[in-house]
Amino acid sequence: MRLSHFLPICGIAVGLSSCDSFLEFEPGDVILAEDAISTPDDLQRLLTSTYDVLGNIFGGRFQIVNELRGPNFGAPDNSLDFTAVYNRETTFFTGINGGVYTDFYYAIYRCNVVLESFELVADLPSETRDRMEAEARFVRAVSHFGAVRLYAQPYGATADNSHLGVPLRLSASQNPLPRATVAEVYAAIVEDLEFASANLPESNGVYATRDAAEGYLAHVKFLMGDYAAAAAHA
Predict the structure, then answer these.
(1) Considering the chain, what is the average pLDDT of its residues?
(2) Looking at the whole model, is its pTM more than 0.85?
(3) Disulfide-capable partner of 6 in 30, 52, 70, 204 (CB 3.0 to 4.6 Å)?
(4) How far is it, in rounded angstroms, from Cα 14 to Cα 119?
């Protein structure tokens, strides 16, 4: 099967030197994924770029948006973006808030491209594929988890968690999607993290490990009110 995902030339070709534009769609300046990804190193660099996006989100922006919605901050006086978040007036088109929302889905999209590109790489060792799949699903879960916590009411807001969450993207598509329910988003997060926990190595340098997946599972289960499972994962 030939994939129809588009990767800009600047991405793989120059070693992801500009990660922000890696998966942007520019007419006349794109190549097909099957032409961009042919070696384990190509796939690894794409996978590594997902961590770069998460680093940009969790390097302070996620924390700022999250804290501004809580009771511990006074009204900010030095940023219209921050004031909008504080006053609950923001939309995802404002700079910091829109940037966080968009970046979560950049990371998710890249993870999905990784997951759908294994067949493009010849002689990929099975243990490498399992590790890459586990890392991609870990990053995808962390991204969905961050997005649903910022842009939906919390788990438990309705008895069956049928209230709207965020779009749930489990394939590399640019097609518009409706918001999934919070129950559906959390179920996908748990499934990805459980796969990650079962397949990530104990030691993986600065990248995701089994303990990292277990830690996130503890956090997710705690917010779901499943305290016994949270304690077991912790």
Answers:
(1) 86
(2) no
(3) 30
(4) 23
